[in-house]
Design goal:
Elements lengths: L1 E4 L10 H15 L4 E4 L9 H9 L2 E6 L10 E6 L5 E5 L1 H4 L17 H13 L5 E5 L10 H6 L3 E3 L9 H7 L2 E3 L7 E5 L12 H9 L6 H10 L1
Parallel strand pairs: 1-2, 5-6, 6-9
Antiparallel strand pairs: 3-4, 4-5, 7-8
């Protein structure tokens, strides 16, 4: 008998690599004649980097994080291919729900800035990198990525022409966005959902509640999304 074990991660519990090895060991314990194979999978969320490292034989480096956006980070792991042309980033390692476990947080103040730091690091320090592959599941943010963009040079401006840096203030007072052309490697985002941005099946209403978005704040977030 041949058995293939190919799980995704168990959210906020264990990575797909950990789960696949555990399941395989238990199967082998009871089915002694079975040939058990493991194949870890990822949907772009928790464990994305581990799976890519295993499958693609990536080298792991640690990138400095200067803008933690409420996350307790000074550096975070990322992957780079052996030929140095591809970088791999797991958003959950930078702005993930798993980083906030046991901590109270205000979703309006949680920023994706750390993701921008990681992208910027590869863009500025690794000239051979042609593509940055980003897994974007398992995040605790609901800022439409504007925090990440501000680290890449985007400026958020209020009605008085002043730059806004506070995520919560940005949500209420944003009037326009200014930016110069960004010279970045090609960005590829890995996800397994195709929800629209707005509406009943939109990102905020479907995924927001698990991140702390209250029903009465749906319109605030969606109005901000429309401005962006």
């Amino acid at each position: 008998m041949k058995i293939l074990v190919a799980p995704n991660s168990f959210k906020e519990c264990a990575s797909s690599l950990e789960i696949s090895k555990l399941i395989a060991s238990k199967i082998s314990e009871y089915l002694h004649n079975a040939e058990v194979f493991t194949l870890a999978l990822s949907d772009g969320g928790d464990g994305f980097l581990d799976v890519c490292k295993e499958v693609l034989d990536l080298s792991i480096i640690y990138v400095p994080i200067s803008s933690n956006g409420n996350f307790p980070l000074k550096k975070a792991p990322a992957g780079i291919s052996k030929d140095g042309t591809e970088a791999y980033i797991e958003s959950a390692n930078l702005v993930g729900m798993k980083l906030l476990l046991g901590k109270s947080s205000n979703i309006k103040m949680i920023s994706s800035a750390a993701l921008g730091d990681a992208i910027k690091y590869f863009s500025m320090n690794c000239p051979g990198v042609e593509k940055i592959i980003v897994g974007i599941g398992g995040t605790a943010t609901n800022d439409i990525g504007i925090g990440a963009l501000t680290q890449l040079g985007v400026k958020c401006i209020d009605s008085n022409g002043k730059e806004i840096t506070s995520p919560e203030t940005m949500m209420k007072d944003l009037e326009k966005i200014e930016f110069d052309k960004m010279d970045l490697p090609r960005l590829i985002f890995v996800t397994d959902v195709d929800n629209p941005l707005l509406g009943e099946k939109g990102a905020t209403r479907v995924f927001g509640p698990q991140k702390g978005v209250k029903n009465e704040d749906f319109e605030l977030f969606e109005s901000f999304f429309e401005k962006v």
